[in-house]
Description:
One of its GO terms (biological process) is response to stress. The relative contact order is 0.10. A three-stranded antiparallel beta sheet has the order 1-3-2. It has two domains: about 25-125, Winged helix-like DNA-binding domain superfamily/Winged helix DNA-binding domain (Arc Repressor Mutant, subunit A, Orthogonal Bundle); about 125-155. It is mainly α and about 160 residues long. The protein is globular, with a radius of gyration of 18 Å. The chain is built from six helices and three strands.
Amino acid sequence: MTRWLDEDELQAWLKLAGVMLKLAPTLDSQLQRDSELTHFDYLCLAMLSESDDRTLRMSELATQVNASLSRLSHVISKLEKRGWVARRPSPDSRRVTLVTLTEAGWQVLVAAAPGHVETVRELVFDDLSREDVAALTRVAGHIVERIEASRLKSTC
Length: 156
């Protein structure tokens, strides 16, 4: 039996669907216009910048940016050609590839971050109260957990 959405759920779903459909292309546009980066490029550089020695295993980076290894490999190749990241085999295992943010990549990220953060602030946070931010964190976290649990169930 289908569990239809009630009116409140439907309105919430339509708002969330609007966010999903509109936010990513808007962030992409800003980053491409100002920094010649896609949002995915930016996320890869940012996740590397937050890690020890600005280095992650490809599999760890794929998890952090929610990408398949093949998609990530394609993007990392593009970033590598620009000199923004470097790949190398892990000294611990030849089956593991490490990705490191280069100094040039760090400089690109540093230059792109202010415009990106300002866009995120304007689009998402400027009109929210502290309580709204806490609620957004809680609700978004819950949704991500449900999605991840669903993925785990489907792979078993």
